[in-house]
Amino acid sequence: MFDSKSFKTSALAQLKGRWTVPCIATLILIAIFAIIGESSFLTDGTVGSILYTFISGVSVIAYTNIFVLLYLKTAQIRFADFIDGFSDFIRGFLGMLWMSLWIFLWALLFVIPAFVKFYAYSQMFFVLSDNPKIGVIKAMNISKVITKGHKADLFGLTVSFIGWYILGIISCGVLFVWITPYATMTFTNAYYYLKQEAIRTGVLTPADFEE
Length: 211
Fold this sequence. Notes:
Elements: H1 4-15, H2 20-38, H3 45-72, H4 79-85, H5 89-107, H6 111-120, H7 124-130, H8 136-146, H9 151-159, H10 162-170, H11 176-200
């Protein structure tokens, strides 16, 4: 059963004594997005849009990599693990480009289809970080398969953090340094549940998560 409360409880346990690197990485991520958000060169025109997509994709896959490691390991996570994630820049860029393109195309129809597809594609970066040999298109297809029947669950999990997000806003963004790792770790747990459920029910096999 998709158990949001369990995912959250596990997230706090997984982060206990290991908050440092996720929080530092969050600060860096916030700084990166603040800079590219304020830079007209990175937001205007085709070249700017491509650069924005590149920076966003590389940053997201590096950040996601930390939480995949937190899930898979019980040892301390090194800051070098975050830096190492940037080496996967090709899949990070192509992943963000591919996902953004499809959400944009769905948005041309109506907002609701794009919203639904956002959750269909939401596990894509977890798949990429969890499976270094999988390509972008296959990662998106896997995300669509494992989220089938669970998009409402994922939306509900998002909504469950609204109170925390409000606190983050009230604190002028300071609390997001801790809220973001907590939320991301929770969604990482949700990804692994969806993956294991897909394998358990025979929708996918372990071989599907290989190259």
